[in-house]
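Session log. Operator J.P. requested a structure for one protein chain; no other inputs attached. Running the standard single-chain path with C-alpha cell output.
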Amino acid sequence: MTVAAFMALALYDPDAGYYARAARRTGRAGDFFTSVDVGPAFGELLEIQIAEMARLLDAAAGASLPFDLVEAGAGDGRLASDVLAAAGARDPWLLDRLRLHLVERSAAARAAQPGTLGDHAARLAGQSDRLPASFEGVLMANELLDAMPVHQVVNRDGELREIYVAAAGDGLAAEEGPPSTPRLREHMDAVGIRLEPGWRAEIGLEAIDWIRDAARRLRRGFLILIDYGHEAGELYSERHAAGTLTTFAGHQARGAETAGRLPWLETPGDQDLTAHVDFTSVRAAAEAEGLATIGFLDQTYFLMGLLAGSAMPDPESLEDFQRRHGRALRTLLMPGGLGSTMKVLMMAKGVGAPALRGCSYRVRVT
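Structure written below.
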C-alpha cells in the first residue's frame, strides 16, 4: 500500500486508528502540544480576528446575517469553546447569531464536544466528519493539514519512485515502486518541484483535495489555516532532503531512519504521523477555486497584530489580558517554538481582500 493509505489506516481506522481511539491526543497527558494546549489565550485572540471577519461580512451584505463558524479537525471542541467564551464576553452580538459546525473524524472526540462546550453547546448546529454542504462565515483549522495522509516519493538515479509499505516477517518495511498515480508527477511539474538524486519528499494530495472542496462549499467568508510547513521552494530543498514524515509519541519526535529502521512504520495506531504542509500548493488550489490570499505569516506576527496597535476589545484592556495570560503569550509568541513554527494562512471569498487585524503588525514568514 502507499504511504498515504498506510497513514489513513494508522491514524483514522475506526477501530485501530490513532485519532479514532481517543477523544484527545494532545497536552501534557498526550503525545504533543498545540497552541490550544497552552490555555484559552489562543482562542481568545483568535476570536478577535473572527469578530472582525464577521463585521466585514455584515458590511459586504449590508445586513446582519447568521454567521457560520466551522472548525475542521475540531477534536473535542476545546478551541471552539475558547472562541465562543471570548465572544460571549466581548462580542455578544456575534455569539447571538453564531452557528457552530464541528468537523472531526473521531467519533470519540465528537461525543465529547457537547460536554466541552458546556453552556455554549446550544450554538452547535452540526457535528460531522465532513464539512457542511454550504456555509457563510469563517472556516478555521488548527493543525489539521499536517495530519492528512501523504504520498512519499524519492528520486532514484533520476527516476521518480514512490515508497510503499509492505509486510516483512513480523513487521512492516518500505519498498520502492512506480508512482501509484500520474497526479504525483503532474503535481510536481505544476509546482516546479525538482528532487535531486536520493532526495525524498511528501506530496499532500489529500490536503490539496480538501482545500479545493472547502473553497467550493464556502459561499462567502474567510479561511484561517494554522499549521506548520513551508513554501514549496523551502520544503522541497536540500534542507528537507530526507523528507519530513515524522512520528510523535510521549512528546518525542522521530523522523530520520536509524539503523535501517523507519520510526513511522513502528507501532501503527499508537503514535502520531505527520508531515510538513506545502503551503504553496494549498494556496494555489484555493485560489484556483476563487479564494483570495490575504496573508501568510508566522503565528508570532499574526498574534502580535491582534495584540498591537490598540487596546483589546471591551471589556478588557490590553494590560489586563497580558497580565492574565503572560506565560501563555510567551509560549505562543516564542520564536523557534510555536511562534515561528506555526504559520497562518488567511484567505477570503466574496469580500475582496480586506486588511485584517491579524496582518497589521508584520506579514513575515521565517
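Operator note: Residues 3-359 form a domain with the Rossmann fold fold (CATH 3.40.50.12710).
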